[in-house]
Amino acid sequence: MIGVVGAGAWGTALANVCARSGRRVILWARDSSHCQDLRAHRENHRYLPDVLIEEGVEFTDDIAMMRQAHVVLLTVPTQSVRDLCIKLKAYIKADAAIVLCAKGIERSSRSFLSDVCRAELPHTRLAVLSGPSFAQDVSRGLPTAVTLAAEHIDFAAALANLMSGRTFRLYHTDDVRGVEIGGATKNVLAIATGIAHGRGLGASAGAALIARGFAELSRFGQACGARAETLMGLSGLGDLVLTCSSEQSRNFSFGMALGRGELIQQAHHGKLAEGSFTASVLIEKAHQLNVDMPIAESVSAVISGQLSIDQSIERLMSRPSKAESKM
User: How far is residue 253's CA from residue 236's CA, in Å, rounded to a whole number?
Assistant: First the structure.
């Protein structure tokens, strides 16, 4: 059985994918009223309306039900991953596989999520799922390709085969850090492209931000030991392009609202933009590694109130000229 911890849009979409592949799936919701609504309507009115949930998906608000699962997908927000790992300790099978499906860096510890999970659930087998994917597309069975990473390539391949379906294709790798870095960094950069769009800076500026943003992602990734081919792949460049070019992206939409003049508190529109939490931690790590990330740094400065949007644009455009090969 496959357990999915977190009944938001992404958890619901992945539960549908696994059920379509003939797997028994149990989807855990944090509160009982949400769980009851899912059971009654087989539709996630809160987070993914108008999408029918497959018959192979069961629902629970009891985290102890995860003791039945051989594979557990963690689809909760980044800053909630540690708390959920702690709750799972008493119920998870000793040989269970944990698949991290969140994208970000824990603010309190400045840790990547694989390190958080290893600290709290040291005896489980760990994998990371990331790549260009919107919950609406995946849940409706539209063609999607993502990457699954684990330290042992055979384990990664087995999990990829287990979760793949007719319209959901998984590539596998043993570059866990590279896949994590792509997922966390692209959210911050998507805020930048959203700001540019909301400010009416034009398509040329948006393209430049994606290209130079990828240079920043690559520098940071390689400084952390990620492989270039991972950063160029689905979980790096692929996810960056998607997240930086569509209003379906919460991070892009958040940035777009900022660009139009909305205050930070309003710009979320009740939705979680992981990049807004990741930006300051990402820049802190970049400074420690002596990695230059001017676009990400501008996003962090805007979110923290250190710079206005106009000041951040002026700072980026007035940087000294250099050869493009100097990534």
Answer: 20
Active-site residue, 186 included: yes
State the CB neighbour count (10 A cutoff) for residue 225. 10
| Closest of 102, 62, 133, 327 to residue 221, by C-alpha | 327
Q: What is the pLDDT of residues 32-56, one digit of tens each?
A: 999 999 999 999 999 999 999 999 9
CA distance 30 to 195: 33
pLDDT digits (tens, 9 = 90+) for 212-247: 999 999 999 999 999 999 999 999 999 999 999 999
How far apart CA 260 and CA 152 sit, in angstroms, is 46
Rounded to whole angstroms, what are the CA distances from 196 to 65, 259, 276, 310?
45, 6, 16, 10
**What's the residue count for the chain?**
327
Structure tokens, 130: 């990331």
Write down the catalytic residue from 87, 93, 103, 186: 186
Sequence ranges of the domains in the chain:
2-174, 177-317
Class of domain 2-174: alpha beta
The CATH class of 177-317 is mainly alpha
217: which DSSP letter?
A: H
